[in-house]
TrEMBL record:
<protein>
    <recommendedName>
        <fullName>Cytosine-specific methyltransferase</fullName>
        <ecNumber>2.1.1.37</ecNumber>
    </recommendedName>
</protein>
<dbReference type="GO" id="GO:0003886">
    <property type="term" value="F:DNA (cytosine-5-)-methyltransferase activity"/>
</dbReference>
<keyword id="KW-0808">Transferase</keyword>
<comment type="similarity">
    <text>Belongs to the class I-like SAM-binding methyltransferase superfamily. C5-methyltransferase family.</text>
</comment>
<dbReference type="GO" id="GO:0003677">
    <property type="term" value="F:DNA binding"/>
</dbReference>
<dbReference type="InterPro" id="IPR001525">
    <property type="entry name" value="C5_MeTfrase"/>
</dbReference>
<keyword id="KW-0489">Methyltransferase</keyword>
<dbReference type="InterPro" id="IPR018117">
    <property type="entry name" value="C5_DNA_meth_AS"/>
</dbReference>
<dbReference type="GO" id="GO:0044027">
    <property type="term" value="P:negative regulation of gene expression via chromosomal CpG island methylation"/>
</dbReference>
<keyword id="KW-0680">Restriction system</keyword>
<dbReference type="InterPro" id="IPR050390">
    <property type="entry name" value="C5-Methyltransferase"/>
</dbReference>
<dbReference type="GO" id="GO:0009307">
    <property type="term" value="P:DNA restriction-modification system"/>
</dbReference>
<dbReference type="Pfam" id="PF00145">
    <property type="entry name" value="DNA_methylase"/>
</dbReference>
<keyword id="KW-0949">S-adenosyl-L-methionine</keyword>
<dbReference type="InterPro" id="IPR029063">
    <property type="entry name" value="SAM-dependent_MTases_sf"/>
</dbReference>
<feature type="active site">
    <location>
        <position position="85"/>
    </location>
</feature>
<dbReference type="GO" id="GO:0032259">
    <property type="term" value="P:methylation"/>
</dbReference>
């Protein structure tokens, strides 16, 4: 790969959450000068896993230029981040007037004040569906950036998940960003089995803190800890009737396999569905531990996913530990940028051949 510079490019991460974006960019060779978020639990997770990254728990609206001048040792090459996405989400009713939809303007304010060489915004696909892309791009072109937006599918970059994300990249002098090269296709995607089947088997209400078998796939080896301590691998205590109901669902199947007398009364058409072991996951959400969630029942075990399995499917290695209560941990996992996707983007940002 042809690098633009031998010196590590620097960045600040706004709306950093638990650190999926920062972790991936760090793995690509970039250096974090500051990470900011208003969510205490997520920032504790971030600092626990990346203690050398300066962090500040702060409302982005209070990150003034004088405050940033105090916090930053130098001007960053990049400002990156993923503004809260609930207002953009394709789940539920989207509202262009939702106040969460204009938080990118706070991001823009900081880019305008710091004048970095480049910026990157990551968000859910719903943003593109609402035709925000031109509005966002034009707002940064006014600041002197050439901007390109693209939709990236996580599975095409080694993540065992089909989640799609919108990425905006702008730079002052490098031209237009081509995005990271696709490394996986339908024949070579990392599957759910490839990702999590080395983890200890569990029933409802059980937990494990040690591995019971060695990794057997390249992805499992990438995720596996060198030691034997396993964090976040615990199952919610599902009711007995729910366990019996989902026991009828085959690998990759759905609630139609449940006998009528055991059918749950509530839920959507894609509730109570198993992940397909031979395919990537669909999209990991904060409801990953609930069988009533969107396709988040283990392919072969009669239960919802554990936090660790969700993290694996997001491409967080096992050495990355999540802090806070179980509900908070699952929310951190579901809201995160898949680190392997972030790493692929980071490598491409620094590759002179990925600009035109």
């Amino acid at each position: 790969m042809v690098k633009i510079s031998l010196v590590a490019e620097t960045f600040i991460d706004l709306f950093a959450g638990a650190g999926g974006l920062s972790w991936g960019l760090q793995q690509s060779g970039m250096e974090c000068l500051l990470a900011s978020d208003y969510w205490g639990d997520a920032l504790k997770t971030y600092s626990h896993n990346m203690p050398d990254h300066p962090t500040i728990e702060c409302d982005v609206r209070k990150l003034t230029m004088p405050k940033l001048a105090q916090l930053l040792p130098e001007k960053p090459d990049w400002v990156v981040g993923g503004p809260p996405c609930q207002g953009y989400s394709t789940v539920g009713k989207r509202n262009r007037e939702d106040p969460r939809n204009v938080l990118f303007l706070q991001f823009r304010r900081i880019v305008k004040g710091l004048r970095p060489k480049g910026f990157m915004i990551e968000n859910v696909l719903g943003l593109k569906d609402m035709s925000y892309e031109q509005e966002v791009a034009e707002s940064f072109k006014d600041l002197g950036y050439r901007v390109r937006f693209m939709v990236l599918t996580s599975a095409e970059h080694g993540v065992p998940q089909l989640r799609r994300r919108v990425v905006f990249v702008g730079h002052r002098d490098r031209g237009l960003f081509q995005g990271p090269p696709i490394t996986h296709d339908d024949e070579t995607y990392v599957s759910v089995a490839d990702a999590i089947f080395d983890l200890p088997e569990l029933s409802a209400g059980e937990a494990a803190t040690e591995y019971t078998k060695p990794p057997s796939t390249p992805y499992q080896k990438l995720m596996h800890l060198p030691g034997d301590v396993l964090q976040g691998h615990s199952v919610s205590n599902h009711p007995e009737h729910l366990v019996k109901a989902i026991s009828y669902i085959p690998d990759g199947g759905n609630r139609t396999a449940i006998p009528p007398k055991l059918q749950p009364r509530a839920g959507f058409h894609n509730s109570y569905s198993r992940l397909a072991s031979w395919r990537p996951a669909v999209a990991i959400t904060q409801n990953l531990g609930k069988p009533s969630g969107t396709r988040c029942i283990h392919p072969t075990q009669d239960r919802g996913l554990t936090t660790r399995e969700g993290a694996r499917l997001q491409s967080f290695p096992d050495r990355f530990q999540f802090l806070g209560g179980v509900t908070s941990q699952r929310l951190q996992v579901g809201n995160a940028v898949p680190p392997l996707l972030a790493q692929a983007v980071g490598e491409a940002l620094q590759d002179g051949n990925r600009w035109f």
